[in-house]
Structures are given as structure tokens and as C-alpha cells.
Amino acid sequence: MTEVWEGLRRERGLVRYAVLMFALLLIAAVLWAVDERVVREVNVWAKPMKFMAAGGLMALTTAVFLAGLPAHARAQRSVQLMVWVLVLTSAFEVGYITLQGALGNGSHYNVSHPFLAVMFGLMALAAVGLTATQGYLAWVVMKNGLTWGQPVFVQSVVWGLALTFVLATVSGFALGGLQPPPGQGLPLLGWHLSGGDARPAHFLGVHANQLLPLLGLALMRLRGWQPRLTMGLLYAGVALYVLAWVWLSASALAGRVA
What we know:
The chain is built from ten helices and two strands, in the order ααββαααααααα. By secondary structure, it is mostly helical. It folds into two domains: 1-148; 155-258, no CATH class. A two-stranded antiparallel sheet has the order 1-2. Helix 2 (12-34) runs antiparallel to helix 3 (46-67) and helix 7 packs parallel to helix 10. A hairpin with a 2-residue loop joins strand 1 (38-39) and strand 2.
């Protein structure tokens, strides 16, 4: 853990951005508690809060993995450019969604004016750029490895980052053309599990870069286990994760068709 903390000190930009997102999340939570306005039966601050939390987590996760890269890989100009892409695309999405929420308007699927339609399209492009940073980081980690962690953990990081790019991008495009049902749904998350809602699948896609490395970390802690067995368990976990995403995606599409 010492190496992680020392590495995070070198990634101050991403850490500060994550802290900013979490601070804004606390402010939005207060506004959520006192502001009774709704869009499609959901509080206007619910969506900004989700994107603030997701943006902060992605920035912090990326900072942790960057901290584990060898110095020469971390210093590459393309890696630093990736950091800027992450911050700018995330900030654009959070900023626009928060502005629309503050005005009492919807941000997604709101094409009632040409400007709003353009902004909706730009958010889609920003989302692809944001998840692409995780795909690029997967390639960098696969090529250079990490300075700490056993091979099973490094593999879990590569798979998690790569699947965030692939699954979140695919489900994001599906979500862009499949507006969720109105209403609150599950507490906090707002999902509708009865069908027609692609957000649960999108959640698995967006957070694969955190959930799969947690699996790798747990497998790394299994002392006395053969490396081949722990790696096999990781691959089984990855397969089940993808199958869960496929099932949730199919459920969303089937619910909408029905």
C-alpha cells in the first residue's frame, strides 16, 4: 500500500479532480434533500449525483493504476494526454447535466431544441472519449505491467479496464436510443429491473474497471493457492461478469419490445 500512496502523490491532478467531484456530490446531495423538483418523476439532482460519483471514482481508479505503472510508461506524453481527455470529457458531462438539472430540465433525450440536440450528441461523444481512456490504459498496463501486485491482479486490471471501454461503450449507445421508463425504480440507483432499462447493464460496463480488479485483489490474497488456479478463477469471474452484462442488456431490450 505504501507504493500506492506514493504513486497517488504523483497523480495529484486526477486525485484533485476526484476530490472535487466528491465535494460537488455532497453539495448536490443537500440540494436533492431540499429541492422537490422532478424530471420524469425523478428528483432533478439524482442524475448529477450519479455522474459526479462515477466521475470521481473513475478518476481515482485511473490514478491508482497510473501510480502502479513504471516511471517510463507513466511519463509518456500519450498517457498524460489520456489524463486530460478523462478530466475534460468527464467535466463536460457533469457540468452540462448539472446545469440542466439546476434549470429543472432533462439533459439526456432532450432534443426539443437544436442546441439541446447538439449537446445530447456531444455528451455521447464525450462518453466514448471517457471510456476510451480506460481502453488505452488497459493496453498500457498490458504492455508495461504494474510495479506491485501479483500477475492475477495485473490481469484483472487489464480485463477490467478493457471491459469498461467495450461494455460501457456498447451499452451507452444502446442506452442512447432506449430511454429508461419514468419513475424512481430502485432506491438511490433508480433502475427498473422489470425490463426496458439498460442502465443496470451500463453500470456493469462503467464499473468493470473497479469490480474486476477487486476480484483480482481478493484472489491475490488466497495464500497457498496455485497461480494457475487463481488465474483460472479470474477468467471464470470475467466470463460470468460478461454473461451478467449480456443478460441485463437482453432483458432491457426484451422489456422494451414487450
